[in-house]
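Let us work through a complete example step by step.
Step 1: write down the sequence.
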Amino acid sequence: MELINFLIEHYYLSGPLLIVIVLLIISNARKGGKKISTQQLISLCNKDKAFLIDLRDSESFKNGAITNSFNIPSNDLIRRSNEINKKDKSIVLICEMGSVSPNSGELLQKEGFEDILILKGGINQWKMDNLPLV
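Step 2: predict the structure and record it as tokens.
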């Protein structure tokens, strides 16, 4: 209750703070590319419209990955960007939990890649949805 009274009494401070928080949330949500669900990813793959990049380390990739995904660890992404197929396909970034992909997407955007998508929840969400790994 005291917090609410404080915020109301100091509206000239709490108003701008609220605006900054909302803008940070919106900015972070759009960072690095559009977020897609596992079902949207399946649809893209079925239409052969996705180039999947698994950003996890090679050991994690060997333990299970989404079919037809390519392993380019996030710390090698810029160096190996020439391996990314740009032709008529969306680039889908996949990491462990969906937290590394936005930063990698931002790096790729700076390199000139445009149609970048990020799997929400990463490979963990894929597993939680009981989808197969190879």
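Step 3: interpret the result. The beta strands are 34-36, 50-54, 70-71, 90-94, 116-119.
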